[in-house]
Amino acid sequence: MTVRVGVIGVGMIGQDHIRRLTQVLSGAQVVAVTDVDPARAQSIADGLTSCTVHATGQELIGDDAVDAVLVTSWGPTHEEFVLAAIEAGKPVFCEKPLATTQEACRRIVDAEVASGKRLVMVGFMRRYDAPYQAVKAAVDDGSIGAPLLMHCAHRNPSVPPYGFTTEMIITDSAIHEIDLVRWMFGEEIVATTVLKPRRNSNAGDDLQDPLIILLEMASGVLVDVEVSLNIRYGYDIRGEVVGEIGTAALAETAGAVVKSDGRYAGRVPASWQERFVRAYDVELQDWIDAVASGGFTGPSAWDGHLAAVVSDTCLEALRIGQRVEVASHERPDFYTKG
Ligand SMILES: NC(=O)c1ccc[n+]([C@@H]2O[C@H](COP(=O)([O-])OP(=O)(O)OC[C@H]3O[C@@H](n4cnc5c(N)ncnc54)[C@H](O)[C@@H]3O)[C@@H](O)[C@H]2O)c1
Predict the structure, then answer these.
(1) 98 lines ligand 1 (CB under 6 A)
(2) Are residues 168 and 43 in the same domain?
(3) d(CA 11, CA 20)
(4) What is the CATH number of the domain that holds 33?
C-alpha cells in the first residue's frame, strides 16, 4: 500500500520531510500540501506529481485522498491540526513540540484516548539516531553497570539575534534532551534546576546563553545538559553516560578521523540537518511502515505531553532560580498497550 500523505506547513522541515518522502523513503506519496503562505505551498506542489494545494489544514485533513497527515507548521498551530486529524480518524505525525503548553498536549492525549485508537506520533527523532541507540544498548545490556550520571551538550553555531528567547532554549532546544533521557533510562524526570553561566557575548542582548539544565531521574541518575546556541564552531551534540563500571559516549564524529603529520582531525557537523539526516529518514520510514500496516509506532502523544510537563517545570526553575519538582502524571493504560 502506498500511504498518501498530506503536509501542513511547508517551511524548512516540511520541505525536508517532503524531499525524504518523495526521494529517499519508500511507500509514501505526498498528495496534498497547505501553508499560510499559499504561494509557497503552490511552488512546492508544482515540484511534485499530482499534489493538491489546500487553503487550510482543516481542508487538507478532510480530503478523502489523504490517508495520513504530517504537521510541520509552527508549534502554536499543532494542537488544532492534531485534534482535527484525531477527529477524522487519520494517523498524524507531528513535529516537536506536540503543542506549546502541557494543557494543550493533555487535550490531545484525552482526544486520542477517547478515539480508542493510537493515531499520534511525535517527531522526537533522536530516538532513531544510531549513535544514541548504541549508547542506550550499552546502558541496557549492563556493560557499563548501573547508570549514575549523563553529561549532555547541545551546541548550535548560532540562532537569529532577534526573536529567539531564553525560554526557547528550553522549549525548542532542550526539549530534545528531555525526551531523550526519558527514553534512554526508561524512567521519568522528577525534578529540575536551571543554572545561568557566564553569558556568551555572541548571543543577542536578551538571550541568557548558555544554560545548564539539571534533570533528576526517578532512580537518582543525574543528567546535566549544557545548551549553547551561539558557539560558532559547529553543531555539536554530545552525550556520555557514566555507569558504575564504565562509560558510554556518542562517538566523536560520524565520518573519518584523519591522522596525518602528527595531528588528527574530523568533521564537526554544520547543522542539525547534517547531524541527524539519517535519524529523520529512519523515523519517517518507521511512521510510513506503521501507517501502511494499520499499526502505530514511535514517541506517543503521552511522550509529547510529558516532555511539555518537564519543559514547563524547567521554565519555572529558570524563573525562580531554584530546584522544582515535576508534578507526577498517571499514564493512561491506553499508552502501555502494544
Ligand atoms: N525535530 C526537529 O529536530 C525539528 C527541527 C526543525 C523544526 N522542527 C519543528 O518543526 C516545526 C516547523 O519548523 P520549521 O523550522 O520548518 O519552521 P518554518 O517557519 O521554516 O516553517 C513553518 C511553516 O509552517 C507554515 N505555517 C504556519 N502556520 C500555519 C498554519 N496555520 N497552516 C499552514 N501552514 C502554517 C509557515 O508559513 C511556514 O511555511 C516547528 O514545530 C519546529 O519546532 C523540528
Answers:
(1) no
(2) no
(3) 14
(4) 3.40.50.720
Residue ranges in the chain whose pLDDT is less than 70: 337-338
Residues 152 and 266 reside in one and the same domain: yes
**37 within ligand 1 shell (Cβ under 6 A):** yes
**What percentage of residues in the chain have a pLDDT greater than 70?**
99
Q: Are 175 and 307 in contact (CB under 8 A)?
A: yes
Q: What is the pLDDT of residue 244?
A: 98
Counted domains in the chain: 2
This model's pTM is above 0.90:
yes
Does 141 share its domain with 82?
no
- Give 77 Cα–ligand 1 centroid separation in angstroms: 9
Q: Is 75 in the pocket of ligand 1 (CB under 6 A)?
A: yes
Closest ligand 1 atom to 276 CA: 3
